Amino acid sequence: MSDRGVEEGPIFSAVSASARQLFLLLRCIGFADKAQVHISEEGLRFSVEESSVMEGLCFLEKSLFTSYAYNHTTARPSTPNSLDSDATGVDQPIFQISLPSLLETLQIFGLTDPNTNRPPWARDNHTAPSTAFSSNVLGMNHVCRLGYDASGSPLSVVLEEASITTTCELTTYEPAFATDIPFSRKDLALKIIMRASWLHDAITELASTSPTRLTLVARMQDGKPYLALSASGSLGSARVEFNNSKATTFAPTATNTTQSDTSPSLLLETFQLADPTAKVVNSYKFDMIQKAARAMAVATKVSVRGDAQGVLSLQFMIEVEAGKVSFVDFRFVPFVFEEGDEGDEVEDALEDDEVDHSEDDS
Prior knowledge:
Keywords: DNA damage, DNA repair, Nucleus. This protein is α+β, with helices and mostly antiparallel strands. The chain folds into 2 domains: 3-170, Proliferating Cell Nuclear Antigen (Box); 188-361, Proliferating Cell Nuclear Antigen, CATH 3.70.10.10. It has 8 helices and 20 strands. It has helices at 3-8, 19-27, 99-106, 135-138, 196-206, 286-290, 293-298, 342-361, and strands at 12-16, 34-39, 43-50, 54-61, 67-70, 94-98, 143-148, 155-161, 164-170, 188-195, 211-221, 224-233, 236-243, 246-250, 258-261, 270-273, 280-285, 301-307, 312-321, 324-332. It has a 9-stranded antiparallel β-sheet. β8 and β9 (164-170) form a beta hairpin. It is elongated and about 65 Å long.
């Protein structure tokens, strides 16, 4: 630790009243061994990536903490070419840590609900409705203190439960990647908002065919928003369709199809295409999409966005407590197909099925 850090205090310190909230948010991006941490005045930004074609971003806003202190005067002065400096002219701290180690530390006191250890007549069964992150459901409302003293110092994690205090220091490493997967919010090809649980159910359904690719098709069909997710693999092929009048699961190898009529407000709540007359078709690695399954399972809504280059963003809104939400974002680089490649075959198959459906309705 440098003398300057001792004199001016740590670069960062924060206190959270619930270690479980931090754990469940960070577990959404827990598919990588290392997470890159970016400390700023607004909060902590955790990012992970795989093979440069997928990235997961989790931002812990300062409002999640009961106290949050960022001392920019302790950080290193910025270099002339620095891209991560704030208005004071200092570099914002960026480093890597072992994400599995951090997750293990946050759950060191266990995940069970202590209320279940009490006899049934002694349990409080008349509490107010709770979210998935409420302490009475999770049973892990331990105080968590985070600290980062100076550049190169370990990340300190202190957990407190009653009279027990556990202190862990996680080794920090040099950052491994400098930039995020580029995603142009100003040049969107599509934007769709829907229930995250429906996306989770669709991906689970499609996974049964052991697919390698997921193809997304979005267009206006008969004046109504239409979204289709299709996948094919060694065990067959399947497709899940969403529009504002029904949700249909269609498997070409099956004898029956299933569909359910649902209120339009519960399906594609928002559907925007840059060109309403165009069809948006892109394919992605299925196993990469599956890595966002944990976020799909706990989120309430998801924003599905694609830019003009085909980069896909899945932004999940997660309710951490009543009236408070956090966001976890995933970005995926699409497959680039040549003319006559498999991408055209998938699109042609969807068009053929569309014709079949119109004939059945007539």
